[in-house]
TrEMBL record:
Residues 5-59 form the HTH cro/C1-type domain. SMART domains: HTH_XRE (SM00530). This is Helix-turn-helix transcriptional regulator. InterPro entries: Cro/C1-type_HTH, Lambda_DNA-bd_dom_sf. One of its GO terms (molecular function) is DNA binding. The keyword DNA-binding applies. Keywords: DNA-binding.
Amino acid sequence: MNNNIRSLRETQNLTQQDLADQLGVSRQTIISLENGRYNPSIMLAYRISRIFNLTIEDIFLFEEE
């Protein structure tokens, strides 16, 4: 699933580690999310949306296959 996490993170001048610390996950999880290799749980997606003050739909770009 594509997402806007990298651009949102960079806009707020957060490092991958900063975001990982705020979410309580590893930096590797953030890397995997940004590269589209990992789809988060609904709870993690919700926490990400709260950090960026956006809806889940604004961050994660669902494309039917």
